[in-house]
Write the structure tokens for this entry.
Amino acid sequence: MIGISKLYLGQVEASDPLRYGRHSSKLPSHLLQFSADKKPVVVWNCTPRCNLRCTHCYAATQAPQSELTTDQAYGVIDDLAAFGCPVVLFSGGEPFTRPDVLDLARRAADKGLRVVFSTNGTLIDDALAARIKAIGVSYVGISLDGMREIHDRFRQCEGAFDRALAGIRACREQGVKVGLRVTMTRDNVGEIPAIFDVMEQERIPRICLYHLVYSGRGAAIASHDLPPDLRRRTLDVIIDRTQRLHARGFKVEVLTVDNHCDGPYLYLRMLREGNPRAEDVMRLLKMNGGNSTGLGIGCISWDGTVYPDQFWRDKPLGNVLEKPFSQIWGNPEPGSFLANLRDKKNRMHGRCAACRFLDVCGGNFRARAEAATGDLWGVDPACYLTDEEIQKP
């Protein structure tokens, strides 16, 4: 995640410790990402069931899939808490289609985990929002990929926009922190200004704008991904709209997700503008270390399979029914896929190997690079920095 509001405007945000505060200041910059005390945020796709059929869903599956039982899930939560994972993010499918999901969330909160939901929002009414609040859920992220026509088309469900907006309002009225999740493609980037308008009108304090990853149904629409010039213009729109809201006193938290070259792009823009904070921003970007698939973020699927992240679903690492997550994650065999992934900066080739920002982006998204090129250590096609921009001084 690239914190636009944090980096460009210097805003202090609740998630700063996750991105910048868990590393030892004694480590050199190229090792900051790999600090041994960095425990992962865990995305838990707790069910394959969903009431929508979104065109870009990374977790879509056609085959019936088993789910961990409630007791099995409790065991996983206890292990995550003991291991020191800071956050568990319940996703799906649609997490609120799982009958015991609030019981799981309560167990996680009681164990000291920060609990987050990623949801399409269509099932949240006042009663459910009140229960979410009572549990102590930290945050609910609700997908909104455009205004009514575009969003409903993305979700392949008429009325999805209105129901998502109702869910947002229910959370807000119950005092639950709520934010937007947007997946950007050629089909909806023109909606971003209107989405920012909705944020201001509805007083929604946070937004995450996701770059498309070619996984699940997202692989079928890879041709709809943003070309480099449009990606750059879109980042400028996001930065400018964030600045405008802050100037009007609405200090929203704005992040872009799944494309870590957004960080160097922001830094280079700040240099062009003569912003005195540019070098502080570079320091924070190096502390963050870029993409942390397989280290700072991990995934557990509905059947207990562990993956390096929620998108790389053809790279199983083990199953929590056979070995606890803490053991799968904490003790990878030398030479194993997970161990190699944690050493990826020494395995990159092509433009990435020579890029002066490799310590900043961490090689970007390996899942997208492999999906697009067939090369695990090749170049992520979502990188839009020019050859001149990445050259070392």
Observations:
- Residues 104 and 200 are 33 Å apart (CA to CA).
